């Protein structure tokens, strides 16, 4: 079903851009924060939009919770998949490119693009001395995840088998299990760490006759586990930039709205633990939705980094359509794809 839906939305393909003049830019890389390198954690919340999307009375405590100080940012997040295809959101977040630019549905990017992309969030952070890691909640051979992540700069890839948790899929595993496994792996790392972690506890299917109660029961546990993670990072004492984000909405959301445009929104939650957020002008955009391809640059800038040239170009190119780059001028998107070609092996 997810394949059929995505295939119905044809968009420009990157491989057709041979006829487009490449907009290669003089490339300057990511700049380190003045006050030192924080540990960075990207936490993908499987099938978890803001619970208020199914009822205004359903409010979280911590995960996507209300902003109470300048160390916390949150907002709507536009993603490029619905009811499945988590790897599309993984791809968009790590490469800052919409997966559909590499084919109409973007369904096979992890298979097709292994070894063909030489710039990612991980490669940028590695130039500054980061230890890069992925904590994966399903076997690493699924959709070629291990191979793809390794090819874009991940040095340590851990799945349930290598963590000693399970040899198969286990959708009922609490988020705390993976959080604790991550904390054990990083311990008191002398290097700053950059971690991408995928949760699994909210994975479908949800109980058919009462999916809302099922969702909220699971969300309550995930909410508490996330609060416990933030507390553990606080206790650890090191500066930690944390970004939690939903990869897509669960399939049962089709029962609540027929407006397909609304299906493609989740939420992001950004925290500065044990240090002060930079409160950059980009942070002013958190009162409206943000496209997932722009999430990494917003996070890194809020954590005190200076943007690399590619991220800066992306922000300028998509100015005015940050909430959904699919609404951007097509020629601007094509030109941006041309700029990306310097990081892409044909």
Notes on the protein architecture:
The protein is an alpha/beta fold and about 350 residues long. About 30% of the residues lie in helices and about 15% in strands. It is built from 10 helices and 8 strands. The chain has an 8-stranded mixed β-sheet with strand order 4-3-5-1-6-7-2-8, sandwiched between helices. The radius of gyration is 19 Å and the shape is globular. The two termini are about 30 Å apart. The model is unreliable at about 1-25 (pLDDT under 50).
What is the topology?
Elements: H1 2-7, E1 39-45, E2 72-78, H2 86-95, H3 109-112, H4 121-126, E3 131-135, H5 145-151, E4 156-158, H6 175-186, E5 193-198, H7 211-236, E6 240-246, E7 265-273, E8 290-291, H8 295-302, H9 309-317, H10 330-340
- What distance separates the N and C termini? 30 Å
Overall mean pLDDT stands at 90
Question: What is the chains' assembly state?
Answer: single chain
Strand residue content: 5-15%
Summarize the main sheet: 8 strands, mixed
Overall radius of gyration: 19 Å
Question: How would you sum up the global shape?
Answer: globular
- Low confidence ranges: 1-25
Order of helices and strands: HEEHHHEHEHEHEEEHHH
Classify the helix fraction into a percent range. Answer: 25-40%
Class by helix and strand content? alpha/beta
Total helices: the number is 10
Number of strands: 8
Q: Spatial order of the strands in the main sheet?
A: 4-3-5-1-6-7-2-8
